[in-house]
Amino acid sequence: MLQITTLEPWIDPRGGSVERIRVDNGKVAIEVLSLGGIIHSLWTEDNQGKRENIVLGCDNVADYLEQQGYLGAIAGRYSNRIANGSLNYKGTQYQLDVNQATNCLHGGAEGFHLKHWHMSSLEDGVRLTLESPDGDMGFPGKCTVQLDYRLDDNNLIIEMCAKVDKACPISLTQHSYFNLEGCTSLSNSEHLIQVDAKQYLTMNDVGVPTTIKTTTGSDLDLAEATKLSVQTQRSQLAATNGFDHCYVLTNSNIDAGVGVGVGVGVGTDTSTDASTKNMIRFGCLSSPKSGRTMTIYTNQPGVQVYGANFLDGAKGYDGRIYKPHQAVCIEPQMLPDSPNQADLPGKPWIEPGETYRHNSRYEFGIM
To answer: Which end of the chain is more exposed for a tag (fewer CB within 10 A), N or C?
Structure first.
């Protein structure tokens, strides 16, 4: 029997309060915050039948606001990097907030991860909505977003859609830090990761894509299940202190994330949309110690794998200080800087009358 529980809200030191809702279907449980669309906790069973939280998080709003790791949040309007914080569309130039080296990262310093979302219950989850005004972090047009977290058996389903009233690039991703040994585990090194994608993006020294290359024979080749400990051993990963790379899903329907037409868009139930059927398998994260597995499916053209390489210093549950390589993020998204690089796969620019759609499914199991 699925249970939905409204928990006591948290005080936001900036003003107002943060809503909290817990959804539990007996196999998977999730607690969601109205701050940033954050997944505060995610409970799944291990090979002994014990349920445990497998994502990193904080104890209160102040700690979430202080940390810089986007713990559990939705990154947007545009996840990952936009070079020089600069956009040009049909002759119009836009300057975005620059908050990482020379880039606009995850929508800018005051991106969707820090916004108050409106949250309500669904029959099988929660729905959050957000309205981002024209010029927010430099992005053009008003953007209206709908985010659904739903539980179905042993699956967490994430569905996001957005509309704009001016042409704007949209790429939303869920930025949870997973540790399948449990949130108190201090390392991800014994996790195994296997990736179906056969291509990845090379980058310059500030993380902006330069070329698409094949993974075969490279340090980014994860066709076979590979220990995450290799991220501190493989030379190609040294510059980023581990995995912080975007894989390209060349077999996906790269336009599946965009819909056009009357009756399609924010404010409607998108669970039966055709884009759900277009999801393909990205890969699987597993823990031999706990026996947990997490298989990821998505309709997005890219997936960023980030080994929590620069997590050091964030204050987590019970005041513990998180360390690098304590968890791993697996982030389906449009390709970084693709609004400026028309040769990259995907359709990052959304026009008025179109609907951006992101659908991902996280399937939990036992080895």
So the answer is: N
